[in-house]
Amino acid sequence: MNAADGEVVELLQALVRARSDNPPGDERRAAGVVRDYLAQEEAISVEDVGLLPERPLLVARLEGRPGGRTITFNGHLDTVPAGNDWTRDPFGGETEGDRLYGRGSSDMKGGIAGFLAAIRRLAAVRDNWAGTVIAHVVPDEEPGGPVGTESLLKRGMMEGDAVIVAEPSELAVFRAQKGTIFATLRFVGRAAHGSRPEQGVNAIDAAADMIVTLRERLAPELRHRMHELIGSASINVGTISGGTRTNVVPDACTVTIDRRLVPAERLEDATAELEQLIDGRAELVWDHRSPAFETAADHWLVTEAQKAVAAVRGSAPPVSGLRGASDAWLYAQGAGIPTILIGPGEVDQAHIADESASVSLLRESVDVYYELARRLLPPGSGLGEGA
Ligand SMILES: [Zn+2]
Hints:
The protein has 387 residues and is an alpha+beta fold. It has helices at residues 3-17, 28-39, 105-124, 149-154, 203-224, 267-278, 300-313, 328-334, 359-376; strands at 45-48, 58-63, 65-76, 95-96, 99-101, 130-138, 162-165, 173-177, 179-188, 192-193, 226-227, 231-232, 234-242, 248-249, 252-261, 283-290, 293-294, 319-322, 339-341, 356-358. The protein binds zinc ion (ZN).
């Protein structure tokens, strides 16, 4: 184990120990760990552009030779709360064998530790590459909240020719991600005594009819909208609540739905499709909408990432996609910047009790991010070539 290996493990341990549960949402301690780590390298500037004091959003910047591309790494510091059923300290950062335990170890403080260590390594050789490396270390990703990456998009602060989001992928290259629509449907009826249902309008019956409509008319169609990497589009009824008493005709019922999109579907079309099916039978509130995205299989960002992983690990990585949600769409669709996801964490470890990360993947991620940056920022692309 060389010094850099120990460094990234210690950095992840420090990040895990710096609790950043969301809710409630306070990433100050974890951001402090990042700042302290990067402060050791004079060439790296760090600015907090967060919208709230307790929600720091760090933008780190490192310049190589003039010219060249700009690449941006993204990682979120917030984690879901630890919850129960842990057999380890969720904020201890203890290691055993190849595993490092703690909330956020896989999702996704490990990815952040990996690219920060790579950026420090790049700083040490910054005469040997051309361009700019940026890191966005953000709060508020877990709920898809407004003070994280989205605030960079809204303020026009996204930059770069390529974005690498360090969400868990076990160092596979993810080049696609599903889109999401969360919506609330409110059915309004008219109350009446339960012994005379004909005098009322049953809101639960209306909701039940709608659920059948979604299941029979929409769900089968969505199963045919397939993507080769991330599977099919879908709809799921997540919650239902309504009624007050057994002997009262319910005058209200609320249903929430979760619609997932594949890259071939446009958000506006999926929205219109739902509106058409619901057809005014319920009051409709859009709780969250984000598009799917896909970066082409032959895009240089994808092919160079595959080569970088192959160079480090000795074999080409799987190319896949993320079925869940992440901030990556804000860069890919929001700002139109080619984006991939690659990180040392494991999707299966995210949000579970006894969450852990592989120490060997964590170490390899530093080499992968470094190798990828060197490939994307060749010295010949800047001024001073041949110097
Ligand atoms: Zn995550």
